[in-house]
Amino acid sequence: MLNAPGESVAIEPIAFDDLGDDEILVRLAASGVCHTDLHVKNMNGWGMAFPILLGHEGAGVVEHVGRAVTSVRPDDRVVISWRVPCGACAICRRGDPVLCQTQRVAQPRVRRARDGQHLARVLSTGTFATRTVVDAAQAIPVPRAIPLDKACLIACGVVTGVGAALNTAKIRRGSRVAIIGCGAVGLSVVQGARIAGADRIVAVDLTPQKLEWARQFGATDAVDARSGDPVEAARAAAGGPLDYAFEVVGLPATIAQAVGMVGYGGTVVIVGVPPTDSTVTLPLARGGLFNKKVTLTSCSGGDMVPSEFFPRLMRWYLDGTLRLDEMVTREIGLDEVEDAFAAMTSGTVIRSVIRL
Ligand SMILES: [Zn+2]
Ligand SMILES: [Zn+2]
Prior knowledge:
By secondary structure, the chain is an alpha/beta fold. The chain is built from ten helices and 17 strands. It folds into two domains: about 200 residues, Quinone Oxidoreductase, Chain A, domain 1 (Alpha-Beta Complex), CATH 3.90.180; about 140 residues, Rossmann fold. α5 links the parallel β10 and β11. The longest helix is centred in the middle third of the chain and has 13 residues. The model has no long low-confidence stretch (mean pLDDT about 95). The structure holds zinc ion (ZN) (2 copies). One zinc ion binds next to α2.
């Protein structure tokens, strides 16, 4: 947990309130370490009150269920989604659950044991723990054939990247795609572009290792952004302007590059989480949004309904279409979260997964 702004991650005993009727207690088996957890630490809580329980990419086994829960039972293996449409708001009822802003989440039930303070949980999950409490709708069953320390990746990084390609952009077969930023999410966009049948998949990054990984996950071309103009290099590699450009860094400069890469009618998807209060200046006319009729949008957690999309991702894993094993480059203990943050910052891992 994070106890106060500027402090390192600490391990402390936690305690639990009684479950609400629709809630479940999950004994966690594994959790990926996502950039958003580091973002919460670096952004002094990212708007959440301290103390904060980190982690939002977890999988485990259901231990107890609330009185009204029928969707899962104790001993079910589940992956925990942080993005579950409520099913009741005006947006859900008009048939757009992907746009729902009132997600199904559990009440605060996890406390810091030493003083009883409730822990805020990152993205309403809190998976850097041996147990956590979530709404039953957040728990998506995992088939026996999928190891939980791989299934956990689906919860955030993989669903966000693959969903950006298939749901947000709806990449057309045969198109030209660029991905700027090839961490775990960017590599998942690469996989999504491959699944969508893109013709050219151009990976753009600053580190040769990540470009090498991108090729292994399906990129057809790699552009080292340190050597020359990445916009021209990506267009040259693709054999023309891009149909889709994914910005998976979260910085104004790379968003402008993505807009520069696409051609007429192109789509730019911002996937990287931008710093609070950041702004971007983009050209409108020559090579810009208006003249090129650019669609500029963002991806929120893969723009999907987890009860539908997670099972698809799991089937793709089982038939070899979606590669998860290769994304886990480091397995760690709960006491190594700070090391995982450092490795993430230095770009030497795709994903660190905590074994719980
Ligand atoms: Zn995440
Ligand atoms: Zn809703």
